[in-house]
Amino acid sequence: MAQTQEPTLTVAPLNPENLALLEQEGLSVKPLEPIGAEIYGADVRNRLSDPAIKALEAEMANRGFIVFKHQAGLSSEELIDTCTWWGGHEIHLTHGVHPATPGRNRRIFRSSSAGHKSISRTGTQWHNDGNLEAASFSHSAYYIARAPHNGAGTHFAHQGAAFDALPPDKQDLWQRLVSVNSASSVTHPVVHTHPISGRKSVWLHLGMTGAVIERLPDEGLTIDQLKTLPAHIDCFRLLDEVAMKNLFNDYNDLLDHSIKSGYGIHYEFDTGDLLFIDNWAVAHRASPNAHEPATQQGLDFMDRVIIKAPRNLSPQFGLPQYINMASPHPFNRDGVWQAGEPGFRWKDDMRTQN
Ligand SMILES: [Fe+2]
Q1: What pTM was computed for the model?
Q2: How far apart are the first and last CA of the chain?
Q3: Number of independent structural domains in the chain
């Protein structure tokens, strides 16, 4: 689908063809600034047409997330049916079941201020969901069955615009990096090309990365040329502690600056909001007051459903999708190789829950 790209770092405006198509289905789309979009006039109990779903999926990729407004009273099955519109069209099973989850449905993860002590909530550190997986979830749903009344919500940062905001030397370096998850040994590119928007997007887990591999530069070769060349073990090195600290701090700062730099938003929830986020396009974190107990923010309920990706988020340069972190590393140059949670500790008060 055609999209307009501004010359400066921005998020693509809504595509006029998609807007017209959605209007024909009775939906009105309101862009949020600078990222995201709200959808009015839908009742997600009624499946949209395939072209409308495709158009919304493209807007999610471009804008980061969409919010169907006024969807109060959805049953678990209605919520799950809507989730299968996107990505791999299948639900990824969650691990824990909150006692208050409707029907104890394993496909839904309910978090609540009432469950403050018993179940962890969305992490307060920037992250993408499903980093343990080769096929990190393509989309996540957040259904606000009952909104908090303290203005708590979620921060979103657009990872394509974040890449554009990097200085050229870091763009060059980060595109040559691959992270290794300290718990699952899965590898992911630190910069990937989003499969729908086509935008280069940053991606790093701040709480569970045990190593970062650098593909060393070759004089005169561009990153795209490097990707097509066969690489042998001497083409790689592991980042050392100083380089790791720099990378993690730069990544955290880049997303922290997203709101004031025009590629991030704090979205406050209303009861009945049904958010779908493109988990390959935006990072998120809970706002700090989302973790206040029910006595302070009111009793709220948020149901999360995670949606399988149709493809793996695979590393470049011929590196494998898994490199066993429980074994010694296979590289000829030494660096950080830190198995087990929380992986490399880049600051002292790290919080890893997400
Ligand atoms: Fe999350």
Answers
A1: 0.90
A2: 33
A3: 1
